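Reviewers of the previous submission asked for a worked example of the structure-prediction workflow described in the proposal, so we include one complete record here. The input consisted solely of the amino acid sequence. No template or homolog information was supplied to the procedure at any stage.
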Amino acid sequence: MTDAKRFYQKRFSAGVLLLALPILIGGCGGDMYTPAPIVLPGHIQSIAVRPIANRTQIVGLEDKLRLRVTEEFLRDGRLPFINNESEAHGVVVAEIANYIKEPISYDSSHIAEEFKLWVILNLRFVDQSNNTVLWEEPRMEQVYRYFVETKPGGITEDEAREVLWDLFSRDIVKRTIDGFGSVSGASERKTPKKPLPKNAEPASAEPKKPVERVAPPPPY
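From that input alone, the workflow returned the following structure tokens.
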């Protein structure tokens, strides 16, 4: 066999291998498949956030969370944010279903020095034009561990809440703008097909085992 013939034979073999490579990868890695996100319909051109319901005994949580979500939508800027819900094409509807503060470590005097905050939201997104729910996440949750302010590097409970609101706001905006399946976690995702009664609130959720998250570093 001449050198030229060997050269072209090698090039042909390499080409066949490259063509077959995607098929081989797809056939041996079923768990590598990631479903395409369900993005917002084209007629959703503006976003609003309904005043958040608070099913817990902690007063004021809902206002702080709504403010932070609003700020995140404004910062993201991909869709105009509307303060008046009746003028928006799509509305984020949320309720704080559970707020759990749990001590997880103690000092030598048996005084709690480290706590875990666990908050669960029920979330849905309403298409105002068709009065339907485009998607809902009945158990979006965040968990954050922190040391009390008397310990080095410790923070207050209010500061720990701010971390959770920051995590929630980023996930809510990502879930809304980037589409179904874009937020990882333990929440149960589903897309209902029935129309939503006007001003309906999400159903309450019972707590399950939380998934702990790491606080995002400032700035964005």
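The first strand starts at residue 47 and ends at 49. We consider this example representative of the routine output the project will generate in years two and three.
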